[in-house]
């Protein structure tokens, strides 16, 4: 691509123009950006700014959704912990139905499990009486309480899984948007290295030729001056 330089009134002015043009090309190569200021491409800079805003927005939405997924993962681990304790309580409930069982020992473990489960449930569900009624002397009532708790845990896990899947889908959508919009912005503002390198070579050639011509001009003026003297 030819470099267009308006011919000034003097060679020195042309040298200044070429030098400035070379500095602009050097900046584009150094920064990797075709647009470094509004002077380079005002319209392109505005479009690039809007795309940057869109990229930043999608990135933050992706971070927010991923944070929600992480919170859900923590809650999922808590629900799993409750489920494990309920499994143990269920075994003890069945065991308490045996005439040979030590109901006092089973009740002691029931009380411990109830406390552990309710401590976690308070963080997950906001209630400290999530599980009640574990009674070693009443296996039927205990089984009912455990089954109700199991149902709540299973329903919560299902809802949590569905929500996390939706959030992960959102993360993928936001990340795809960031990639696509970044590519669009890159096409607008990034330096075309092949084109810029060719323009640099042309500018350097013109600048060298102009400097040589300037020196020759000054040399001729010197010779003429000496002849006149």
What does this structure look like?
It is rod-shaped, with a radius of gyration of 39 Å. It is 81% helix and 0% strand. The protein has 229 residues and is an all-alpha fold. The two termini are 48 Å apart. It folds into two domains: 1-32 and 191-229; 38-190, f41 fragment of flagellin, N-terminal domain. Helix 1 runs antiparallel to helix 5 (193-228), helix 2 (42-95) runs antiparallel to helix 3 (103-125) and helix 2 packs antiparallel against helix 4 (139-189). It has five helices and no strands. It has helices at residues 11-31, 42-95, 103-125, 139-189, 193-228.
Concise description?
With 229 residues, this protein is mainly alpha-helical.
Shape: rod-shaped
Q: Output the CATH topology of the largest domain.
A: f41 fragment of flagellin, N-terminal domain
Run of helices and strands: HHHHH
Q: Low-confidence spans: pLDDT under 50, at least 5 residues?
A: 1-10
Structural class: mainly alpha
Note the total helix count.
5
CATH class descriptor of the largest domain: Mainly Alpha
Mean pLDDT value: 83
N- and C-termini, Cα separation: 48 Å
What does the radius of gyration come to? 39 Å
Count of folded domains: 2
Major sheet: size, sense and barrel closure?
A: none
CATH superfamily of the largest domain: f41 fragment of flagellin, N-terminal domain
Instruction: Kindly state the percentage of residues in helix.
Output: over 70%
CATH architecture designation of the largest domain: Up-down Bundle
Into which percentage range does the β-strand content fall? Answer: under 5%
How many individual β-strands?
0
